[in-house]
Amino acid sequence: MNKGQHSVSGPIPPSELVLNEKGRVYHLDLSPEQVADKIILVGDPNRVSKISSRFDVIDHKVKHREFITHTGKIGGQRITALATGIGVDNVDIVINEIDALVNIDLESRLPRETKKSLQFIRLGTSGALQKDLAVGSAIHSQFAIGLDGLLHHYNLDYDQIETDLNTAFIEYTDWNNPGLLPYSVKGSSFMNQSFSSFSKKAITLTANGFYGPQGRAIRLSSNNDLNHRIQNFRFENLPIANYEMETSALFGLGGALGHDCTTICLVIANRLRNEFLSNYNREMDGLIEQLLQAFLAD
Known about the structure:
By secondary structure, the chain is an alpha/beta fold. It has one domain: Rossmann fold. It has seven helices and 14 strands. It has helices at residues 46-52, 88-103, 160-173, 189-194, 226-229, 247-256, 281-295; strands at 38-42, 57-64, 67-74, 77-83, 104-105, 110-111, 119-128, 138-146, 183-186, 200-206, 234-235, 238-244, 260-270, 275-276. Strand 3 (67-74) and strand 4 form a beta hairpin.
């Protein structure tokens, strides 16, 4: 993802960059000093304390709505764990508000001349779309194909490799839903290198729901029949390995704003084998330890 197209000039109006009565960003209730340059994003609010329990010290704890933020230090390095909740709509809020904290002067409402680049890693859960992926294993997303529509609301410039992936996916699947066009975005090459020996590398599908949008049928049937049709799809020798609900927004918005982003997800379901790992605390604890070691080794 290339840098996005910025159209705002002059101070950003209060209706557009919304601050609360304390002068903090509206949804996260954070001020700039409460966010580190290294940020772990999780969907589950309970996972924040699992991460911060490993901090040497916790400097900030903030909870507002479903967003929970803990910032502290491990071995002298500052790190933030932040719960986004579920879905690309929440990630849209989180990425825009965190970027505003570090790249906009909240008093003057003017963009800072020198932009700061943050490192984001999403630590999540997902459902595998390849039979050989065992529950309890992990997937490192190199690309995300967004089936959620979020990035179509932004003026963004896609890299050639992103355009090529999207074209290949549309052609391979014979995509026939013009009202929900997919888009494809890549993770940060810098972050991918940092986690080069970490987990299975693959392409991730980001859906805008958990049931029908991912092909699940309970009392209502789903018209999403992708799960079996994409088994043999490959791009850059990578398979489409999993479904989740946040990565396309992270890669697209984070990349366009100049941040480094990647995603690592624990597989808790295999959709093709109809398997589900109901208690994955041990596997998640191990993944948190691995991730922190790799993230703080930079």
